[in-house]
Each structure stands twice: as structure tokens, then as C-alpha cells.
């Protein structure tokens, strides 16, 4: 076993990360006015909406309390103005274009000026340092490269810190395991679901968690629960750290857990204003209340967005963190509004079912949910695997069906299938299969 690099928690930018809340609010107001100026000058759709809200100059924003009278921006705005209609700078000023997968139609396209890329790189260096990355560490980056922001975001941040980045990208899982072992990787970058696939490949190669050099897992791109974190920590012998981001803001680096506490994701509030709203009527909610996350960019040049509705569900706390940072933290991230299933009048999310499922002994972490309509009503089946080849499947099925009924109030059928049957993903896991 190779000697791993020590990974005591560090701070990249102490002035920004531990700023007094009053000082932070003043900086946010200044930067919000600058964002409003960019929109008024260069983004016709946003400028028109601001005008309708009575904001015709940046000074019409008198305080941060004025934010909730400004109009929302939506993902549909990017799709309807595809590809470059929401840019606030000429297309020629872009040094990079990235985009979402476009799995539901046209991709959402985002652009970066040189200054935008510099800010993103600094945010990733800050976030990855918060997560435990140090100069000299070897980072195995199994996130996809290309239009997906995950691969390049972690790549830039790792290089800025002074780490060694191996740009493996996704796929060829046996090769991933070989490189983790042979290169002596200290940090694994991937989606949480794909990290478990790599863990299985390491196990198949005869490498136990205590025998690899991995210390950290930097994971994002899909919702995951504390139960899945426990499985990942055990399967890889690491501390798994949650990263949150979206391409419309910058990519990963919007919010990150600290290695010290792993208790909520610190929002980079000097670059993003965060709100939580009632998903139904858009009413702002207080700290601690669950709702839809809304972000406003404060330093983005190419694509400034004001009150962007993410569709992601969670809450925000401003309670002090054990690490000493003063920034707000995202808590109870619960997936996306789009992922909600209504079964017999009950709203269910994959992350909720995952949380319940992983409380049962003998169940593995790989699963999917099958939605069907064999009759007049929708039916939901949890397809999962036992954690061991000789597991008692009928007993596990009965246990899971009982747990799910008690926790949700509706009957969810369970199918315990052979290990390896549930399809694995090299990127974001497909948790719901809609066969209706």
C-alpha cells in the first residue's frame, strides 16, 4: 500500500469564506447591482422583465430585500432562446461554450468569458480545498469531459490547487480501477452512483477498501442520501464529499460540503445569492424551510441570471458550521421537482425511497423505480439487489415492502433481482423508468 497524502482540512480564501454576515450582505448588494446593470445593458429578455418590475437602473435596487420583487428566470428561457439568445456579451467574447445533456429536448447552452472561467476555476479550487484536496494529491477524475461541466470543472480546480489531475473521464470501468490502483489516487471524482461501480471493479480486482490509497470522494451531479454516503464510504474506504452546482450558474462549485463537518453544503455567497421559495406560488421561505432553490449570479459576465428557479429541492441554514465558515449551507437536498411521482395521491421522490430502502439490512445500493399503468392507476415497483449472493430475497422483499408502506402510506411493490441486474451508469444514474 502506498503512502497517501495527508488531507487535513484547509481554507483557500479565508477572507471570503469567513466574512462577517453584514460585510457579505454589503458585497452582495454591490454585486447584485452590477448584475442588474449587465442584464439591462446586454440581455433584452431580462431587461424587459426588470423594466416590468420597475427596475430601470441598478440604483432601483435599494437593498437585498428588493430581490423578491424581481421576476424569476426559468430553464425554459434558455431553451426558448437557444443557443445564444440570453448572452449579455457578444458571442465573440466567449472563450468556451458548455451545455446540458439535452435529454429532454434542446440542451441548455451556457457561455463563459475569460473572466467567467477564472472565477469558476477559483471557486473550484476553493471548493475542493474545503473538501480536503491538497497540493500534490493525485485526483482520478471519472466525470465526463466535453459539454458536461463536471469533468472540466474539477480538472481546472485541481490544477489550480497544485494537485495532479488524471483526466480519465467515464467508461471502461475495469481500466478505471487499474489506474486508481497503479497511480495511487488520493481523490476520486465521479457521480456517487458511478463511484459504486468503480468500487465493485476494485473489489473484483482483489483490492479491498483498506488496501487502496483513496482518501476522498468528490461527488455530485445527482441527488444522494446519507445512506448511500455510508455505503460509498465503506465500499471505497474514503470520506465522500457532496458537491452541488448547475451549468446555468457555472457548473460544480456553487456549494460544497466541508471535510470538517460534512453537514450541509457551503454556498459561495460572494458569487451567488441563494433563496428558497414555495414551489407552488413562488413565495420566499425562511431559513430552515424546505422548498425550491433559487440562485442569482453575482459575478457572471456572459450569462447573468436573476432569480433562476433550479427545480432542485432543499433548505438553507445560516447556523454556524463547525469548520468556522460563515456562509449559508444547503441542507436536505431532496432531488428535483421534475422527479416527483404521484402514486395514489402521495408525492414521492427517488431520494426519499432510497433513504427508506437503505435502512434495511441486506440490500445493495443499486436500484431503480419502475412506473407502470396496468389499469386505471399508476403502479410503482422498486427493483433492487441484495448485498450478498446468498441473501434471503423473499424476506428482504417483505421487509422492504413493509418499510415503504409504513413510511409512505402507499403500497410499493418490491422486486429483488440478481446482483448486477440493475443497469449501472457511467454518469448520472437513471433512477426512474417510466413505462406508462
Give descriptors for this structure.
single chain, globular, 19 strands, 4-stranded mixed sheet, 11 helices, alpha/beta
Mean pLDDT: 92
Order of helices and strands: HHHHEEHEHEHEHEHEEEEEEEEEHEEHEE
How would a crystallographer describe the biggest sheet?
A: 11 strands, mixed
Assembly classification: single chain
- Radius of gyration, in angstroms, nearest whole number: 22 Å
User: DSSP strand (E) fraction?
Assistant: 15-25%
What is the percent of helical residues? 25-40%
Judging from the principal axes of the Cα atoms, what is the shape? globular
Distance between the termini: 51 Å
In words, what does this structure look like?
The radius of gyration is 22 Å and the shape is globular. It has helices at residues 14-17, 21-42, 44-52, 75-80, 114-130, 149-161, 173-183, 192-204, 226-236, 350-357, 393-408; strands at residues 96-99, 109-112, 138-141, 164-166, 187-190, 216-219, 239-246, 251-257, 265-267, 272-277, 291-297, 308-317, 329-331, 341-343, 346-348, 363-372, 379-386, 413-416, 432-434. Residues 1-8 have low confidence and may be disordered. A hairpin with a 4-residue loop joins strand 7 (239-246) and strand 8 (251-257). Helix 2 crosses helix 3, helix 5 crosses helix 6 (149-161) and helix 7 packs across helix 8 (192-204). Helices cover 30% and strands 22% of the residues. It starts with 13 loop residues before the first helix and ends with a strand. It has 436 residues and is of the alpha/beta class. The relative contact order is 0.12. The protein has 11 helices and 19 strands.
